[in-house]
Amino acid sequence: KQLGQSYADKQAALQEAKRKKGGNLMVADLNDVLTAEDMSKVEVHDTEYLKTVMIAIPKAVKPQFEANVENIGKDIAGYGGPDWSSNPTSLGKEGQFGSQIDRHSKRGSPVVPGSLKRVKEDADSALYAVTILKGQYEAGYFEGEEFTPGTKTDFLEEFAKSCRKERYVIREFDYDPSQSGRAAMALEQLQVEVDGMRSGLTRWCKTHYGEAFVAWMHIKVIRVFCESVLRYGLPVDFTAVLYKVAPGKEQALTSALDKALGDGKADGDDNDVDDDDEYHDFVLLKFDP
Questions:
Q1: Of 3, 78, 162, 248, which has the fewest CB atoms closer than 10 Å, so is most exposed?
Q2: Could you tell me which of 6, 27, 16, 48 has the C-alpha nearest to residue 196?
Q3: What beta strand segments (E) does 19-161 contain?
Q4: Which residues sit opposite 166 in a β-bridge?
């Protein structure tokens, strides 16, 4: 059982690797797909405040995505604050900053305007780079003499949820030129491991099949003996016969035995039979290894 489970797990991993290898930009390993030339066209940010993410989309929705990308997650980031443009003299006065201001009175998308860049596309999908705000700090405040520290809100997870609602896929990806080709090597290694486990499992089955078959047959013989004694009583006086039936001829054999050994008709529909086995005038056990 453990060998079978291990082989099934390894085979599933191999199928997943093959799916990624032959898949489009929404599932493929980007380190194998993107070249240094592709990445040279993209300005990647990963700072305290900005993060460049890769978004894969179906090719059919390209116009819609390019037109509305800056509205994805339009209720995530808070852009509210004091309006000093109309009254500059109030700049910095009490009640005009920190916890006294509702940052969420105005909301918008964390996408940085103008940051969209198409990286690559294939027959089914397209890959874009988009820069977003990493998060937002909510100011701390005093309650009497006790200070409550501010909190940091992460935008990336909420932005990913908003993308999934539109059936866009954020690809978690860190470009590493040294990773190029490793997926193919890993696929070959998985194939070697699966082949080796299949050979080992086959040898194990061949070795133990005979023992299991003998034990199974022994149980069948014991059951024939017990049911025959229960049906015909003592002393033991019956003959056990093993029939090898051609495929599709099971019903014909059963009917022939009913005519030869019984009253010519099976009694499988008898209401006195509680189980699902057919009742005959002889003990019949089916053996299908």
A1: 248
A2: 6
A3: 50-58, 77-78, 107-108, 117-121, 125-133, 135-138, 141-143, 146-148, 151-154
A4: none
